[in-house]
Model the fold of this input.
Amino acid sequence: MATSKGLEKTLQKLRESVHAGNYYEAQQMYRTVARRYNKQAKYVDTIRLLHDGAILLFQHKQSGSGSDLANYMLETYKLAHLPPDEASLDRIVEILNLFPVNDAGRKTFISNAFRWTKEEGNYPEGDPELHDFVGTMFYNEKKYNLAEDHLLLGTDHSAEVIGKVAYAWATEEKVQWKGVYLARIVLQLLAQKNIRHASLAYKHFIEAGDQPVAGESQVRRAPADSPIPYIIYADPWMNFTQMVLLTVQRDGKDLFTELTSKYSSLYGNENNFVELIQDIGLLFFNIPKPRKQGNMLQEMMANLFGGNGGAASPANALLGGSKSSEDLD
Done:
């Protein structure tokens, strides 16, 4: 979509104001013109204007004013119902690259960008390409917890990077078994039923450093397959993760049950790991998740007032026994 003829003259005037050091006045002028364009539904002009202004102000070390125009650009994305595509995402990436690392406005801009991709895109958790860029950015800044959150929702490249994140994080924390960081990543990806990303993350973790090898064996991916080499690590978490990955790629319900039983002493005291294993068992092998212990008072109240063997009742609902879809939002 083309911009209007008068836009270039307006841009030139605003650039001159910024170059002259009139930052606040220029910011207000950008906003005024943008508001007028939006009222006329000239969203292409508004986006060009605000993007140009944000970049210029960041280049002049005016991150507060640049951030303001950048967020106004995202508001216009939503007004225009602009979908996430290469051009719209590239503008966001270009602006993110100009934010000072510890600028508080960057967090707000990132949140607003993902809010837009959720509303106008096809991914309820936000655009994977944007997750990949933001996650990789945080990895390069050694903010591993933030990197992990985004890379779990990203692309094939994200899966490769998150393997490196897990290794770097484990190394930084000086844990006894680095594999616990690998397991957390791989199990979360498998709980999304994403074998490809789980395998990529595993591969790049293993390749990230010298892993403690205890021996070698052979394993068949399927009963009819020829045996392939299988490395046994000195790190039990690595062995467990490797075996879970192999098991979910075959009809291995009994093997999965045996495997999780064997390694239960390793992960059994970690509720998050237990829940992930249960999710994986249900997704891949249709193994029902254990019924959680009920609240005794809640069940007594349900039976007393409902008279229906513990089915949903007003008393049960008041005590949190059931939730509507609105509650879960």
